[in-house]
Each structure stands twice: as structure tokens, then as C-alpha cells.
Write a structure and sequence with these properties.
- The chain folds into 2 domains: 26-82 and 394-429, Urease, subunit C, domain 1 (Roll); 84-373, TIM Barrel.
- Helix content is 40%, strand content 20%.
- The protein has helices at 6-14, 105-111, 113-116, 124-138, 155-168, 185-200, 217-220, 222-235, 247-263, 281-290, 298-303, 311-317, 336-351, 359-366, 368-373, 403-409, 437-461, and strands spanning 26-35, 43-50, 56-61, 70-74, 79-82, 84-89, 141-147, 171-176, 208-214, 239-243, 271-275, 293-296, 320-323, 391-394, 416-421, 424-428, 431-432.
- Helix 5 (155-168) links the parallel strand 7 and strand 8 (171-176).
- Helix 4 (124-138) packs parallel to helix 5.
- It starts with 5 loop residues before the first helix and ends with a helix.
- Zinc ion binds at residues 88, 90, 147, 242, 274, 326.
């Protein structure tokens, strides 16, 4: 059989993808609480008009004049808000919830990645990622950065994370890991360039908002790091890295690694830290000065006992901050409402002060501010003319005194009535309308079961 080049391989699956679909009509969404998250933080008693291309054409106060060619969604008494943006995620991990309950970062990595990874077979990464993306979608996350991982044995299996993201229909940024098994830097770079070029050829609308680099050089060493920084800068990509997450490793090794980042010109406005908990003043101030950014993951940081980030101090220092729910094996329910509360409440408890973070601030962090960190705020993160109509309609469980407070304090993902991406309804209550989640779940469970049986069989045969 003729062996396909990387580009041909990518094109073959990219061209088979269905894309996002389009609405056939203009849509008006009428609500007395449209939380726009625009620059003025306007909450509007009015309507949003969405074109058939899925873009917002108008957000105005008052009653809409709906013509015969348009559809009216009456959401009066409900809150309309932008879909959440989650800046750090490993979608495949959703198949491994509840794992390693009493472990911290490295113990948890050992039980998950380093135990199961080598037993992954063709199709596992696709199914797990699809399940993770759809689960995020029904929890109100309409844009995700999938910080992909080379857990399975082959590059083809690794790339299943891309095709699953395209099929799910949730907007995503593909945070790409260089193929470190490839023989040279030239080949590693060419594989990424091929993927970006192949994606450009896919007809819009599709789910991929762009690419970034998942930098691992900070763990592999200076040569790898230098190569990644060069590629990221050359291609104009952001590079996201896990950095200063677990307390023990941060203090033993992590902080000292900052010198490598600094010396290799590896701290620039394209560098995004995931976690960035155990910093010191020098690291924080230098990072802020260089324009580096970070993603705060309160659920995961709590679950893995990683620590509480001093977000008010970071913001004061001028660091750009966004939020993420992280993978669902360390933030086991990907509920962004819960994520906001976890972070905000921890800070309020620490300081015995409500002034430490407001409802507006934490809502901004999980929507427009994350979109800014990911550099997709021209398209998502707020409800404004020209952006994609990615939004949620939320049925608050009690009377609304202040819509922002209701969203932050009194709402959970189970209160979401519908999730929309580019003006196309994705869910009704928790039911996905464009995918059969029962089939995906069943497939995911069978594959996890097979992996566990394979692992158990090896353990049995290797016993003396
Ligand atoms: Zn992570």
C-alpha cells in the first residue's frame, strides 16, 4: 500500500469533515438580561440579531421587529450570556474522571498518563476527545484550547485529537505538540506547517479557530525549548506551557528553570503559562514586563492540591489572566460556573474580603479575558457586532436581583437551557442536538474497559 505523506493524510481526513453547519435564517434572541461582556460591560434589555452566517449583526435595546424570514427566540426572564472560553484543557482526559483521588500532580500523572498511555489504540484518542469536547459544550464552554498530548504511541493516534475537535463542533484552538519522535527539527516543523496549511484549505465554517504550540522544552531541556520558541515566533503562534504547578517541583526545580526561559528569549508576549502558581516576585514582574500571559485553573489546582494563585497580585503586576477548567481527570466536572466559584471563593476566604474579586471580574476572566489571552477576542468572548454568535441561554433558578451575581453565585451548568455556536443551537437542556451522546459515551466506556483489561493482562503475565 502506498504510504501517504503527512499532508495527504491530514487532507484526507480534513476534507471528510462536516464542519459546523449554518442556520438557514436570521435569528432574533429577545431577553431582558443580555450580558454582553463588551468593553462597557453592558447588560441589555433588548435583543440580539444573528445573521445566517452565524455572526452577530446587532445587539440593541428594545423590541425587535421580526420579519417573516426570521425566527424569534423569546428568552425573556432568562439570561443570555457569551459562551465560556476555557484556556487550558486536555479533552481526552474526560474518560478518566475520578482517577488517583489522593494524589498530587506527579502521583496523578503516574496513575493516568504513565499507566494507561501505552495501551491506547487507534480510535481511542478520537473517542475520548470527542466525548470531552461534547461534554464541555453541554456545560456551556463554546471555545476551548485543547492542550493536546502525545499520550498514545503514534503520531497518527495523537492527531486524532484534531479530527475529534473538528467533528465535535465546539470552537477550539489546537495546542500542538511537536512530534519529538521525528528525526530532525526540519521534519518536526514541516509537520506542523502542513497541518496549518491543510486546515486553511477546509471550507468555512469549521470549528478550528487556530493553532498554538504546546511547549514541552521546559521539561525536556534547553535545546527543545529553543527549537519551540523559534518555531512559535517564526509562525506567529502563542506557546502554552505547564509551569509552576505542583508546589514541591516548583520550588525544587521549576523556579530555577526560569533562567533558561529568560536566557533563550523564551519569555515574550506569545508565552502563556498554564497554572503559574508558585512564582516569586522576580518571575512574576519579569513575565508581566515581557507581556507573558497565564491561564488560571481553580478546579484543577484545588483537586490536585497544587495551590491557590494570587490572582489579584498578578493582575496588579499587569499580567494578562484567563481561566480554564483543565482536563476532566483533574477538574472532574467541567462546569465553568463551579470553576468561577472555586477560584473566587478561595480568594475571598483567604483574604476575608469580598473586595478581592467581584462577579464582573470573574465572569470577564472566564469569557472575554480568556479570549484575549488566546488572541481570539476578535471572534469570541463577548456578544458584540461582528463576533460569532456563541452564547448560552440560562434559566436562573430564582428571581434575578443582579444578573451577574445570579450567574456567578446561583447558577450551575444544569441551569443552561441551550448552547449556541455560530448561531446554531447545540443543546436543549443537557441534550446534544447534533450528536448522539449515548453512542459516544458507550464507545468511550468500551474503550476504557479494553485498556483496563489489557493493562490487567500484562500485570498478570508479568507476575513471577
Ligand atoms: Zn494541563
Amino acid at each position: 500500500m502506498r504510504k501517504l505523506s503527512t499532508k495527504q493524510l491530514l487532507l484526507s481526513f480534513c476534507l471528510s469533515l462536516g464542519g459546523l453547519g449554518l442556520s438557514a435564517e436570521n435569528i432574533y434572541v429577545r431577553s431582558n438580561h443580555i450580558v454582553t461582556m463588551d468593553a462597557t460591560n453592558a447588560v441589555i434589555d433588548g435583543y440580539m440579531r444573528i445573521g445566517s452566517d452565524g455572526q452577530i449583526l446587532d445587539v440593541s435595546e428594545g423590541e425587535p421587529e421580526v420579519d417573516a424570514f426570521s425566527r424569534l427566540i423569546d428568552a425573556r426572564g432568562q439570561i443570555v450570556m457569551p459562551g465560556f472560553v476555557s484556556g487550558h484543557n486536555h479533552l481526552w482526559q474526560s474518560a478518566f474522571r475520578g482517577i488517583a483521588p489522593n494524589e498530587e500532580l506527579y502521583g496523578w500523572l503516574n496513575e493516568l498518563h504513565w499507566t494507561y498511555g501505552e495501551y491506547f489504540k487507534s480510535g481511542d484518542m478520537y473517542t475520548f476527545t470527542l466525548y470531552g469536547a461534547l461534554d464541555q459544550l453541554r456545560h456551556g464552554i463554546t471555545t476551548t484550547l485543547n492542550h493536546t498530548q502525545t499520550v498514545p504511541p503514534t503520531y497518527e493516534q495523537y492527531m486524532e485529537q484534531f479530527s475529534a475537535g473538528m467533528d465535535a463542533g465546539q470552537h477550539f484552538i489546537y495546542s500542538y505538540v511537536l512530534d519529538w519522535k521525528a528525526p530532525t527539527a526540519t521534519v518536526r516543523r514541516a509537520k506542523l506547517v502542513d497541518l496549518i496549511e491543510a486546515t486553511r484549505l477546509i471550507q468555512e465554517p469549521h470549528a478550528c479557530l487556530g493553532f498554538g504550540l504546546h511547549g514541552v522544552g521546559v521539561h525536556r531541556g534547553a535545546d527543545s525549548h529553543r527549537e519551540e520558541v523559534e518555531i512559535a515566533k517564526d509562525l506567529g503562534l502563542d506557546m502554552q506551557i505547564h509551569y509552576l504547578e505542583g508546589a514541591k517541583q516548583s520550588l525544587e526545580k521549576g523556579q530555577a528553570m526560569y533562567e533558561m526561559l529568560r536566557e533563550e528569549a523564551g519569555v515574550w508576549d506569545g508565552l502563556v503559562y498554564a497554572h503559574f502558581i508558585h512564582t516569586n516576585d522576580d518571575i512574576l514582574m519579569h513575565s508581566a514586563k515581557k507581556g507573558a500571559k497565564m491561564i488560571w485553573n481553580p478546579l484543577s489546582n484545588g483537586r490536585l492540591a497544587s495551590g491557590l494563585v494570587d490572582i489579584p497580585k498578578y493582575l496588579e503586576a499587569g499580567l494578562a489572566v484567563g481561566m480554564g477548567v483543565d482536563g476532566s481527570a483533574s477538574a472532574d466536572v467541567c462546569d465553568p460556573f463551579q470553576n468561577m466559584r472555586m477560584g473566587m471563593y478561595a480568594l475571598r476566604m483567604r483574604d476575608s474580603s469580598a473586595a478581592v474579586m467581584s462577579c464582573l471580574e470573574v465572569l470577564q476572566l472566564h469569557t472575554i479575558k480568556t479570549a484575549e489571552v488566546l488572541e481570539v477576542d476578535d471572534r469570541v468572548g463577548s456578544l458584540e457586532v461582528g463576533k460569532f454568535a456563541d452564547f448560552l441561554i440560562v434559566e436562573p433558578p430564582s428571581p434575578i436581583f443582579d444578573p451577574l451575581a445570579t450567574l456567578v453565585f446561583a447558577t450551575s451548568a444544569s441551569d443552561i437551557q441551550s448552547v449556541w455556536v455560530r448561531g446554531v443551537q447545540q443543546t436543549k437542556k443537557k441534550e446534544l442536538l447534533l450528536h448522539d451522546m449515548a453512542v459516544v459515551e458507550n464507545e468511550m466506556e468500551l474503550r476504557v474497559e479494553r485498556i483496563r483489561l489489557d493493562l490487567a493482562a500484562v500485570a498478570t503475565t508479568s507476575q513471577p
